[in-house]
């Protein structure tokens, strides 16, 4: 009997120890001020695999990348703004630091702007009833990523990524 209790205690300890490691792989679900749930992530292979696995259960998948860059290796801050294409209503405003953003948008057609530094890319995203939408924002390979991550004040003062 003591052996059974000891084995159960050891198994419980292993489960408790493993729980934080599993939770760390799942990015948090956030709520935008507009009331839309979203999740950002994919900064490592486990997180990217998780985001890809759950993306069909979310209405919108936005992917961010640089042309000719490896998939999933995108961690620069991107400002995302989503508006209803037909009435202009602002439905989501958020910042992501990973290559994927999932959002629970209502069925409809949206204009999505993704801003990295001073370069804004625009895409139209259509979400049908039971048919998720997906779009890719692809910055050119010659885009200066280092300058894009500088604070606006540094850009205004003419600072470069090399600190000149």
Name the descriptors.
single chain, 164 residues, alpha+beta, Immunoglobulin-like, five-stranded mixed sheet, four-stranded antiparallel sheet, 4 helices, 9 strands, 35% strand, globular, disordered N terminus
Helix/strand layout:
Blueprint: H1 2-25, E1 29-31, E2 37-41, H2 45-54, E3 60-66, E4 78-84, E5 90-96, E6 100-103, E7 108-116, E8 119-127, E9 133-139, H3 145-148, H4 152-156
Parallel strand pairs: 3-9
Antiparallel strand pairs: 1-2, 2-6, 3-6, 4-5, 4-7, 7-8
Tally of discrete structural domains: 1
Which strand-content bin applies to the residues? 35-45%
What characteristic shape results from the CA principal axes?
globular
| Global Rg | 20 Å
- The helix/strand series, from N terminus to C terminus, equals HEEHEEEEEEEHH
By CATH reckoning, the class would read Mainly Beta
What is the spatial order of strands in the main beta sheet? 1-2-6-3-9
Number of helices: 4
The CATH superfamily name is: Immunoglobulins
CATH topology: Immunoglobulin-like
| Terminal Cα span | 72 Å
- Return the average pLDDT rounded to an integer: 81
Q: Kindly state the percentage of residues in helix.
A: 25-40%
Structural class by helix and strand composition? alpha+beta
Question: What is the CATH architecture annotation?
Answer: Sandwich
What are the low-pLDDT stretches, counting only 5+ consecutive residues below 50?
A: 3-23, 159-164
| Main sheet attributes: strand count, strand direction, barrel closure | 5 strands, mixed
What is the total tally of β strands? Answer: 9
């Amino acid at each position: 009997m003591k052996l059974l209790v000891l084995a159960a205690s050891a198994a419980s300890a292993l489960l408790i120890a493993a729980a934080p490691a599993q939770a760390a792989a799942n990015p948090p679900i956030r709520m935008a001020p507009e009331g839309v749930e979203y999740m950002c992530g994919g900064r490592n292979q486990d997180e990217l695999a998780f985001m890809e696995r759950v993306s069909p259960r979310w209405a919108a998948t936005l992917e961010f990348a640089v042309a000719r860059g490896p998939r999933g290796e995108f961690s620069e801050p991107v400002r995302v703004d989503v508006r209803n294409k037909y009435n202009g209503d602002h439905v989501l405003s958020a910042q992501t630091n990973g290559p994927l953003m999932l959002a629970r948008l209502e069925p409809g057609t949206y204009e999505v702007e993704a801003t990295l530094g001073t370069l804004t890319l625009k895409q139209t995203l259509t979400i049908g009833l039971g048919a998720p939408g997906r779009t890719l924002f692809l910055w050119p390979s010659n885009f200066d990523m280092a300058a894009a991550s500088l604070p606006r004040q540094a850009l205004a003062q003419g600072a470069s990524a090399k600190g000149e």
